[in-house]
Each structure stands twice: as C-alpha cells, then as structure tokens.
Amino acid sequence: MERSAAYPNDSAARPYLSLAGSIAAAFALAVSLLVLAAAPAKADYKFCNATSYVLKSAIAYQSDGVWKSQGWHQILPGNCAPVLRGEITEEMYYVFARSIAAHKGGTKYFSGNERFCTVPGDFLIEGRETCVARGYDAHHFTKVDTKPGKDWTTTFSEPRDYSIKQAKIAGIQRLLIDNEYKLSRVDGYDGRNTTRAIMSFQRSINVKPDGDVSDALFEQLIAGAEQNQRKAGLSFCNQTEYLVWAAVGYETDRGPESSGWIRVEPGACEKAIKGQLKKRDYFTYAEAVDENGLIPVIGGRELIWGGDAPFCTKPTRFQIQGRERCVERGLDTTGFKRIDTGEKLIWQETLTAPAP
C-alpha cells in the first residue's frame, strides 16, 4: 500500500498533509513512502485523518484528458475513507481539505497552488478553468505524485503528529471544547477528565453515559458544536438576486488581518467569523457577481458594499496578516466598511440591492 502525508495551513500556522509517496506543496510537509507487504489491499485512493479536526476533503485528477474535481468527503479524526474507487491509474492527483465550520477558531486548510472548481455541497465538476464564471467556487489543491498500482493513501496530519488512534481521542477532545466543556488540552490521551466530559455530554443529550468513543458520539458532538456556532459570530445575509463574495477585516493579537472570500448565495446567510465577537469594531467588504462573473451595475453604480478602511485582499481565497503595503506584497488594496457591533456577541450584515 502506497502512502503520502499532508499537513495544514490556517490563519496562524499553515496546516499540512501527510501523503504516502511524495508530495510537492507550498508549505512544510512530512513525506514518507511506505510499501506494506501485507494482505492485498482493496484498490482505492484513501484519505486518512490523523488530525484533531473533522475534515471536509476533495480530490482532483485528469481522466481521458479531462480535469475533474470531486468532494466533499467528510473524514472523522482517526478514520480513513475511500475517495476514489478502483486502481491508481494516474501519476498525479491533487488533494484539498479543510476543517468543518463547527470548530472554534480559524479554519484549517490543507492546500497548495493548483486551482480547481468546487461548490459548497457535494460535487463532481469537469474542467478547472473559469470556475467563478461558471458559477463555481474555487480552492487551491496540493499536488500528490503517485505511482500507478493497487491503491494509495494520503494522511492529513498536524504538527502534534498524532497517531491514528490518538487522533480519534484528540478529535473528541476538540469537539468537547467546541461544546463548551472545560478540558485543559487536546493531547490525544484518553484520561479521566476526557471520559468524565464525554459522560457529562452524553447525559446532557439523554444518551446512556458510557464514555465510549464512537462515530455516533462524533456526530452528536458535531451537532452540538454547530448549534453553538449559530448563536454567535458575524454573518453575511444576501437579499439580492446575485451571488455575492464577501470578506472581513478585524484586529487580532498579531495585528490586523483580513480573510475571504465567503460565498453567499441569493437568499442565504453565511458565517464569516465564528464564535462570540470579542471586538467592538469589525470591517466588511462584499461584491455581487452576475452569471458572467462580472459585478452588476444598478443605477449607474457597481453592486459593491465597501468603505474607506483599506485592507489587503487577493482574487482567490485568502487569510492575510497586516493591512500595510498591500501592493508591494503582491496583493490588492480594498476599501472595507467599518462595522460598530456595539459589543454584541452576534452580528448580521444584510446585503441588499438599491432600486433600479
């Protein structure tokens, strides 16, 4: 069985992957090649999750001269799952993963430099060009050099370098924290405090408090964390007939940061900042696009919601530290609007179009 490793990139420390085989990526990677002469493995391309985060993953490849991207495959911590059935026929594949929105803090990305089309829901998309113009989202995937054969496994890891068994416990610990249980650390060790927290959570949802770690427990914890996220944070709500791309700016302990793009479908709301808002002032920018990927003009004005507070952006998804010298750093300078939340813990930014 061939393996490769991949590691993450997030807003603070870039994440990474662990790909069995070799991998070329923009960030630090742990690369290992293992050929295991055990019982014949089933012929599949598999993803394994050795992180403490629940991951949504996708894969891209060329088949009969046509580029294809497909996802999302949710992989629980400490689990493996097939993402492509059948033998490995190509020498290059491209992979991407991100932590789910239910987790506290910034999203962890396992990404690279190769852009492929995606959508928020399940997808199988042909072609990798003009994603936005075709109504798709886009993410940057990491290249994986493989060898044609029976199977291949890519393992997503984080700097703590958990084993698969430890990752399962670490994932439960992180989700308990996401559900407001006071654990002191995410370490992958199944101690008394972790078991007590599991049993307390099980009692809270009227489930037998056995303390067992199972896929059912994961799903219950994810549901609880998602419910918590709905009670806090900053969201964009799109009340126009157009697709909207939005971004946010904010102050952190490291200084100002900006992040985007958040895809907001007509009539939908999307979370831009998770968890309770800890600052009074935030900054927002959004722009609508029509079916041709162009910003519509209504009443002689482009349908943009911005202001005079400069932050750095770029055309593709971004998480940028600092708001100075944007152009010198190869970025764009964009005017954001200042939002005074009045120190509320939750804020909704509603986007409407002016009358024609």
From TrEMBL:
InterPro entries: DUF1036, Peptidoglycan-bd-like, PGBD-like_sf, PGBDSf. Gene3D superfamilies: PGBD-like superfamily/PGBD (1.10.101.10). Residues 170-221 form the Peptidoglycan binding-like domain. SUPFAM superfamilies: PGBD-like. It holds the Pfam family PG_binding_1. This is Conserved protein. It comes from Tepidicaulis marinus.
